[in-house]
Design a protein that fits this description.
mainly alpha
């Protein structure tokens, strides 16, 4: 009955394997905790993600504005005799450009503030 007392070689090997697993799990846990404690790296990652989102949003906004501008130009040409009234009816491109500009300024201020 060496298995029941814990003196057998099978129990020793099982115990060693469990210790190895525990060490691996502990190492992974420590890496995760170290990553969470690294505030500077987390802020940098967060800023990079925000910058990427803003770039994507800016690209979408530019594409949308260009499409609307092209569409507006066609409408303006068709209604040229009304003296710019078509542009006044479709103020969305200017609002979109203004929103995009404000977003870019905000991102630049955040990035600049974090560098200090």
């Amino acid at each position: 009955m060496t298995g029941a007392t814990g003196n057998g070689t099978g129990d020793t090997e099982a115990l060693r394997a469990e210790i190895r697993r525990t060490r691996v799990e502990l190492g992974e846990t420590m890496e995760l905790l170290a990553a969470k404690a690294d505030v500077k790296a987390r802020l940098k990652d967060s800023a990079e993600q925000a910058r990427d989102r803003m770039r994507e949003q800016a690209a979408l906004t530019v594409a949308r504005v260009r499409g609307q501008a092209a569409q507006g130009a066609g409408v303006a040409r068709a209604q040229a005799y009304q003296g710019g009234e078509a542009v006044r009816r479709h103020p969305v491109p200017w609002a979109t450009v203004a929103a995009g500009a404000v977003a870019v300024v905000v991102v630049l201020l955040i990035v600049r503030g974090r560098r200090r």
